Amino acid sequence: MRAGTVQGKVKRIRRITVRVLNGMGGKAGTNEALMEDLIRRDQADPMDASPPPRSGDFDVFPASDYETDGQITIVQDEPLPLDILCVMPRVAVGK
Q: DSSP string of 54-89?
């Protein structure tokens, strides 16, 4: 079996893992109309203070269909830090 590239093949992005350093907020997805929150407030955060910046891997499971483009969009629409170290998509490839 030859692995090769997935460029030009029909694919669906099943999961997006974004590695962040000291970030807050942000949204990710495959469609700008259906973006999901990237870094959410933790239940242990006190409600009378702003949440602390977080580092680590954050998963988003976008609602997407099979297509040849397979584009990912990440936005920060608030004046908060969001340093992205890497983006790791999990892709299902069609025939």
A: EEEEEEE------BS----EEE--SSS--EEEEEEE
